[in-house]
Amino acid sequence: MQQSLIVLDFGGQYKELIARTAREIGILSLVKPARTSVAEIRDLNPVGIIFTGGPHSVYEEGAPDCDSEIFSLGVPIMGICYGMQYIAHRFGGKVAAGKVGEYGETEVNIQSHSKLFEGLSDKETMLMSHTDAVIKVPEGFVVTATTSDCPAAAMENKEKNIYAVQFHPEVKRSKQGVKVLENFIKLICRAKCDYSLDDYIQNQIKIIRDEVGDGKVLLGLSGGVDSSVAAALISRAIPDRLLCVYVDHGFMRKNETEEIKSAFKDLPIKLVVIDAKDKFMKRLKGVTDPEKKRKAVGKEFINTFARAAKKYGKGAYLAQGTIYPDVIESGANNSANIKSHHNVGGLPKNMPFKGLVEPLKGLFKDEVRKIGAMLGLPSNLISRQPFPGPGLAIRVIGEVTEEKLTALKESDFIFRKTLAASGEKADQYFAVLTDSKSVGVIGDYRNYGYVLCLRAVITDDFMTAEYAPLSYKLLDKTAAEIVNNVRCISRVCYDVTGKPPATIEWE
Ligand code: XMP
Fold first, then answer.
1. Between 111 and 404, where is the model more confident?
2. Does the Cβ of 459 fall within 6 Å of ligand 1?
3. Are 204 and 237 in contact (CB under 8 A)?
4. Between 3.30.300.10, 2.50.20.10, 3.40.30.10, 3.40.250.10, what CATH number should domain 395-494 receive?
5. What is the DSSP pairing of strand 142-146 with strand 154-157?
6. Nearest C-alpha to atom 15 of ligand 1 is from which residue?
7. What is the pLDDT of residue 443?
8. What is the pLDDT, as a whole number, of residue 131?
9. Which CATH fold topology does 4-188 show?
10. How many angstroms is it from 301 CA to the middle of ligand 1?
11. What is the CA(385)–ligand 1 centre distance, in A?
12. Which atom number of ligand 1 is nearest to the Cα of residue 385?
């Protein structure tokens, strides 16, 4: 049976990051609630357990704790932040609010030749984020690191095989943090580290088969990375029993619907494309406010999808491409929670489904992309940029009309083509059709056309972004090609605002 590393969740915000880092190091890693029974943990064949951080104080009433049998399992344990304080408290040490809390990158003095710190220097920068701290380690434990404000930044009891750190090794801002986790997993837990995303795929295939039995699955395919990879994975598990419903609302980019059809044509799934363009356009007639547009598109989408579900989904399971960041965004950890911000959000309660299948739920975006590639999805689909659920409807400012939508599709297509050909890079780029008009001249004719804006940004997480410093040559070429080919556009601008203060989309 596959070895695992269990991450016991004491309420910390980085729990999935610990699990993901462990997976990258090469061990199957699963996040489990703090009170998970020792029997359940034993069944998962753990070679080590990590206690996460958390916002509580060990002295608080109802502070999270774990089954005390866990300490008798005979596998190494590592506590992080609250996890360390919990261990100290549990074994008779002392925890108290420090003189000052430590928040941010902090210099840590590595004091011993602990296996946990093998390969580290005497001084390392690690991320601290705590008010309470261990001020006296329990009997049998030794201090293995300190900071100027923290007398025990790490401790261990080799005999009991328990290790603990006050800092957060799992975050990037802890420079050698990954090395600490790697030492725990490889040197202390002696994990085989033979786990790969291929194991993830095989494991999910088994779970889907067990869950669905001989039933069928319906999935709302948006053409985005997550729902596409979920579709490919489910079709591996239950070939020919997956039905994908793709609602064509007419606001996809040029050629995108055809690309999606073509990406799925060789997979053992049935793809139903519902052409609902006219209905969506009708709904948007006279709507200019962006929030109202979002709501109108969302509502029409739900109606269309619900009708399709009634027709095709009786007794089926509903599949979604929910990934880990969606679970955080919707503030829930409950599998029955329907992904709220995406296309299938807010489905009516009385849907005919037997249950929910979410095979990507514990994964981060880059892991989903890797799985997509392993399942043979084309690279343009896997590396697809984020795209708003209401699509180009919110990139046409003001009322959406056929003329404006077509002009935006064409311009956006030209921009994507010229940027790709130039070799210049941006993490997200698109065109926006503003609602302003401006006089231009084409040949000897006055051209009173729309102002189009190009947007391209550099970003890691899409929460903050800088505008991409595209070359004048590229902007020049793009503007000329757009104005020459898209008649109703008279002028092209480039957005040089970062986020904040702007957002990435224009709405
Ligand atoms: P803003 O405009 O808020 O956008 O800076 C941040 C990122 O989110 C994308 N975005 C969406 N993604 N459904 C999505 O899946 C949506 O409705 C949606 N709206 C915006 C946006 O393209 C950018 O990458």
1. 404
2. no
3. yes
4. 3.30.300.10
5. antiparallel
6. 388
7. 82
8. 84
9. Rossmann fold (3.40.50)
10. 17
11. 10
12. 24
Catalytic residue among 56, 89, 130, 168: 168
- Pocket of ligand 1 contains residue 391 by CB under 6 Å: no
Length of the chain counted residue by residue? 507
Core vs surface per residue 357-390: b (16+ CB within 10 A) or e? bbbbbbbbeebbbbbbbbbebeeebbebeebbbb
105-143 residue pLDDT tens: 899 999 888 999 999 999 999 998 888 899 999 999 999
Segment 1-16 shows an average pLDDT of: 90
Q: Specify the 3-state DSSP secondary structure of 485.
A: helix
Mean pLDDT of 213-219: 95
Ligand 1 centre to CA of 230 (Å) is 20
Position 116: which residue type?
Answer: L
> Fold identical between 4-188 and 395-494?
no
The pLDDT of residue 49 is above 90 = yes
Q: Higher-confidence residue: 403 or 464?
A: 403
* Distance from the alpha carbon of residue 170 to the mean position of ligand 1, in angstroms: 27
447 lines ligand 1 (CB under 6 A): no
Which residue out of 16, 170, 300, 358 is catalytically annotated? 170
Relative orientation angle of helices 402-422 and 472-485, to the nearest 10 degrees: 150
Q: Is residue 168 flagged as an active site residue?
A: yes
- Map residue 335 onto helix, strand or coil: coil
481 is catalytic: no
pLDDT in tens, 312-358: 988 999 999 988 767 555 444 432 233 333 444 567 777 789 999 99
268 lines ligand 1 (CB under 6 A): no
Is the minimum distance from the CB of 466 to ligand 1 under 6 angstroms? no
433 phi and psi angles, rounded to 5 deg: -95, 110
Per-residue pLDDT at 338: 31
170 given a catalytic annotation = yes
The answer to whether domain 200-382 has CATH 3.40.50.620 is yes
What is the per-residue pLDDT for 327?
59
| Among protein residues, the one whose CA lies closest to atom 11 of ligand 1 | 388
Output the average pLDDT for the chain.
91
Token pair for residue 229? 């990879």
CB atoms within 10 A of CB 161: 17
Atom of ligand 1 nearest to the CA of 503: 5
Could you tell me if the CB of 428 is within 6 A of ligand 1?
Answer: yes
| CA 505 to ligand 1 center in whole angstroms | 7
* Contact between residue 428 and residue 312 where contact means Cβ atoms under 8 Å apart: no
Domain boundaries, the chain: 4-188, 200-382, 395-494
